[in-house]
Specification:
There is one protein chain. The chain has helices at about 1-10, 15-35, 35-40, 60-74. It is mainly alpha-helical and about 70 residues long. The chain has one domain.
Length: about 70
Amino acid sequence: MVIDQILNAVVPGRAARQARQRDDTKLDGELNDSFPTSDPLSVVQPGSGITGAEVKPSELSPSQKAKAGTTKAN
């Protein structure tokens, strides 16, 4: 450690380069650790749009009955 302090005092910019390298290494490690959560969200979520089996109703709803009655009269 004493050698690093002496070299940092003698070699111009050495301390700044080492600090930048430590920061870059730390950032790279943090990015690697966060990889799964750094992926963009999917546009379509799994299971969206699937509502189950399509079943035809056994009889018309009241609004469908009213609509069917008005169209027959016209």
